[in-house]
Give the backbone structure.
Amino acid sequence: HFPRKLKWNTNKLTFRILDYTPDLQKSDVDKAIRKALNLWAAVTPLTFKKLHTGTADIMISFGSGEHGDYNPFDGPNNLLAHAYPPGQGIGGDVHFDEDENWTKDSTAYNLFIVAAHELGHALGMGHSTDAGALMYPTYSYRTGFLLSEDDVKGIQELYGPNPNPTGVTPSPDSPKQCDPMLSIDAVTGLRGETMVFKDRFYWRLHPQMPEPDQILIKSTWPSLRNKVDAAYENPEKDQVIIFSGIRMWALNGYDIVEGYPKYIHKLGLPKKIRKLDAAVHISDTGKTLLFTDEEYWSYDEATGRMDSGYPRSIEKDFPGIGDKIDAAVYQYGFLYFFRDNLRYEYSYTHKKVWRVLPTNSILNC
Amino acid sequence: LPLPADDTDTWLLAEKYLRRFYGLPVGLQGSRKAAGDFQKTIKQMQRFFKLKVTGSLNEETVEVMKQARCGVPDVGEYT
């Protein structure tokens, strides 16, 4: 919240769109604003009435540079928009930087997402430190219901809940890097970096950066699913393969390779397999191991075929790690298996678990 | 010696960013050292974004400062 917890003293608010951006059709701007208001209305008793003339509580406009409030914008990028907390006059007003390229999709700055954030300010919300919250200060593209539990808790502290709940489910708060109970969905290398996937996010670990970055998956790859099941890097092909459900995507650097997504069955997996738990490429052998439930397959990258004699039991072939895993990665000559909050350092040559570490140790915890 | 142009740009970016979003005071504040204020404010920003709190302008911090964002300050009054 803002200092002194500024809020409107009525639940019946008015808004007016003073001007429109030429980047979008008028109707698209109207839709984006209405959709953004509905987001907050869904979880509060607030209602929003559109005015076409006169002064509304929330006045919405587009402007470039200095646009009348002595709080200038800065041209393309960086500052996208700003809004004023509830109050008389300029209070509650929302300004968008006209120098940005506003879109309906993920190709540039999505007006709906920015409007939803700014309207949060117009209702009394300050910035959140939770990277998964809509009220986080930096822009990231996302899909689905935009409000996180943190956003909902914040707005309901000001206005209370919606007396007629709409049944929408807020996104859970972002996973905490050093949570001792942290489990992960997938892990892979990417040109010397390590990427750790968990829920809607991934952490990017760069050897020259002391702390991992937490980023929304959708923010980097809008066309990818919100959850990654498994991932592996094939350094020989300079590709990272990402699995989600029955589909897989190939990345070259951060770019999705043309022709993807493809079905995971193209690898030779039986149709009954609907998702993978983990995948890991062993560069010494050229084989990729694909784990699902209690079994695993071996895929030969050179021939592009599954090896015969598979699936085999995880428990029998990798003694000490249990019968099911969440994620796997091959680093420094060791296979690291992740299961719940534990990370097993497994020696491929000695066929035994070398060390057991907490899962969060991969994130420098 | 004058700083290389890239460094100067980065410092200017950081100063502008911290002034706008974290209320870094402009110029020298009486007997207080401007460098101390800068370090204190940068730490505040690093804590907010869950970066490693060093009080110095490292690559990671500059990267966050360059991201597209909302113009409302992260801390303090906005009137």
About this structure: The interface with chain A takes residues 21, 48-52, 59-60, 64, 66-74, 76-78 of chain B (CB under 8 Å). The longest strand of chain B covers residues 69-70. Helices of chain B lie at 5-22, 34-48, 59-65.
